Q: What sequence folds into this?
């Protein structure tokens, strides 16, 4: 079905409008009840199901620690190298949350009829733990990840939890893993953290989950925002290609030459190359679940992503509707810096609120930093690819970049939009000073070069 067909239905169907409103109202009501209960934490007169309680967390350390590979090793580039332990916490409708447990990393055991395998009842988070220049381990704005994790869980009817207790569990897990996997001798190193929740009840039927499992794992990631040559080259969404495949441009606003020379047009490219989505492909839509971090947002996008890679691009720039509204770049938020039609330097990104855009932690941090500086006008509004084309034609287009956890701040060199190549100044040999300045500010907080409330120090155990 084409976007125009969807638009006509959504504007004339009270049933569809009501369904979207009911879903939003129900989600907000559950979140409100969860937050109210978390704030009160009073003991009721009658027994209730148990809350998530980090103080009950037990630790069983592995007897067989894994070797820690070098950062540029094939294991790290494969993004499959996990740390020694995992944290798990089981929930049932009847009893609530059981005691969290940190134990040796290993396989999960679920039945073939588990809800997650049939109805996509799962959500996850993506964040990092950093070893700073001062030797301390930090999380970056973990309160935002915790809140988004709760919002995602609520959106797909998974159980609520205290975000404060979740943070304590997360920090304890990082504290256990940090000494070996973020060695104090190696400053400015990180591990990727993946909190996840899945519905595990062994029964078919489209219904609210009656059992669930929360777990947290840590994975070694390469620095996806830096160019690499050799065995593999990382791509913007966190996957890696062998050196025999297409070359990938740098993600740091500087020129890179790849080890492979199959495509001369891509060699020495700067920044990220994007292919705008066709009019008949939609990743997220108003009233949908693009604002929740659930697997259903990602799996269906892989075919289009593969098409982009085959054509020499790094990711899809997702557009919506006949108007070609700009939404996200791959799985990251997307920003454009331009001179608006009044001649002001303006940073624009798609707005939150209608279920289309994920509330990225990096997105929020970019907006907070730029607003605090006050030298650029910040606008969150719907804008179209046609506006970008017009700005490029008029010489007003300054920079574009993606912002996310995995590949951080990635400047854009060009966008292919339905037969037209829109080249950003970076793609013409200029620098992406605005994006790189923001990146440096955020890295300074993450790695402790400056002390900031966003960098939360974790005690090592």
A:
């Amino acid at each position: 079905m084409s976007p125009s067909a969807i638009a006509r239905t959504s504007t004339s169907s009270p049933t569809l409008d009501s369904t979207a409103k009911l879903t939003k109202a129900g989600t907000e009501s559950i979140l409100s009840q969860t937050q109210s209960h978390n704030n009160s934490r009073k003991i009721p007169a009658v027994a209730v199901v148990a809350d998530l309680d980090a103080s009950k967390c037990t630790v069983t350390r592995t007897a067989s620690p894994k070797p820690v590979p070098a950062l540029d090793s094939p294991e790290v580039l494969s993004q499959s190298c996990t740390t020694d332990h995992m944290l798990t916490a089981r929930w049932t409708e009847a009893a609530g949350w059981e005691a969290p447990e940190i134990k040796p990393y290993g396989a999960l055991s679920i039945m073939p009829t588990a809800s997650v395998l049939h109805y996509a009842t799962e959500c996850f988070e993506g964040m990092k733990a950093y070893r700073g220049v001062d030797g301390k381990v930090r999380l970056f704005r973990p309160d935002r990840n915790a809140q988004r994790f709760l919002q995602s869980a609520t959106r797909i009817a998974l159980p609520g939890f205290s975000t404060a207790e979740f943070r304590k569990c997360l920090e304890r897990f990082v504290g256990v893993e940090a000494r070996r996997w973020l060695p104090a001798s190696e400053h400015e190193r990180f591990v990727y953290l993946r909190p996840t929740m899945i519905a595990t009840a062994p029964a078919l039927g489209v219904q609210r989950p009656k059992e669930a499992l929360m777990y947290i794992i840590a994975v070694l990631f390469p620095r996806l925002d830096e160019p690499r040559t050799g065995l593999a080259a990382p791509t913007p969404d966190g996957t890696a290609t062998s050196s025999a495949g297409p070359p990938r441009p740098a993600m740091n606003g500087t020129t890179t030459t790849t080890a492979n020379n199959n495509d001369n047009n891509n060699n020495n490219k700067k920044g990220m190359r994007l292919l705008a989505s066709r009019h008949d492909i939609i990743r997220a839509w108003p009233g949908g679940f693009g604002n929740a971090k659930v697997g259903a947002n990602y799996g269906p996008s892989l075919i289009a992503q593969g098409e982009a890679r085959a054509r020499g691009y790094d990711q899809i720039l997702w557009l919506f509707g006949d108007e070609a509204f700009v939404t996200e770049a791959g799985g990251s938020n997307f920003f454009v810096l331009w001179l608006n039609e009044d001649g002001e330097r303006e940073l624009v990104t798609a707005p939150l609120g209608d279920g289309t855009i994920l509330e990225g932690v990096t997105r929020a941090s970019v907006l907070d930093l730029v607003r605090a500086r006050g030298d650029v006008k910040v606008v969150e509004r719907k804008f179209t690819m046609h506006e970008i084309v017009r700005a490029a034609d008029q010489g007003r287009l300054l920079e574009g970049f993606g912002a996310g956890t995995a590949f951080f701040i990635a400047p854009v060199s060009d966008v292919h939009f339905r037969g037209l190549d829109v080249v950003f100044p970076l793609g013409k040999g200029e620098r992406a000073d605005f994006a790189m300045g923001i990146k440096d500010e955020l890295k300074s907080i993450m790695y402790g070069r400056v002390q900031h409330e966003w960098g939360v120090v974790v005690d090592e155990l």
